[in-house]
Amino acid sequence: MPTVQEVDIATFARARESGAPVLDVREDHEFSRAHVPGAQWIPLGELPARVAEVPAGTTVYVICASGNRSKRGAEILQESGRSAASVAGGTAGWIRAGHPAESG
């Protein structure tokens, strides 16, 4: 199985600015509290059945709270033939670094 690429917050921020897709795999209450603006939301437990909803042909940046679930999410995407990277530090790191977040 391919190793999941992990990227830091700064690398993720540059990719996002360039239009890279973002997939948040946290639970509903976590996502509604705060998430990266424009992130697609599919809870990790639903991802295997919903992979077709995730963009293909480009690297998808998978994010969770701190970086653990996003690794598994990136693995699921890679197993389905998609390119994915896990965001180390997750949404908490994104917010700590001073980047914007949305709620709802």
UniProtKB/TrEMBL annotation:
Q: What is its EC number?
A: 2.8.1.1
Q: What class of enzyme is it?
A: transferase
Keyword list (alphabetical) reads: Transferase
One example GO MF annotation: thiosulfate-cyanide sulfurtransferase activity
* CDD domains xrefs: RHOD (cd00158)
InterPro entries from the xrefs?
A: GlpE_sulfurtransferase, Rhodanese-like_dom, Rhodanese-like_dom_sf, Thiosulphate_STrfase_CS
Asked if Transferase is a keyword of the record, the answer is yes
**Which named protein is this?**
Thiosulfate sulfurtransferase PspE
Quote the gene name from the UniProt entry.
Answer: pspE
Transferase recorded as keyword:
yes
What Pfam family is a match, any one? Answer: Rhodanese
Species lineage: Bacteria, Bacillati, Actinomycetota, Actinomycetes, Mycobacteriales
Residue limits of the Rhodanese domain? 16-103
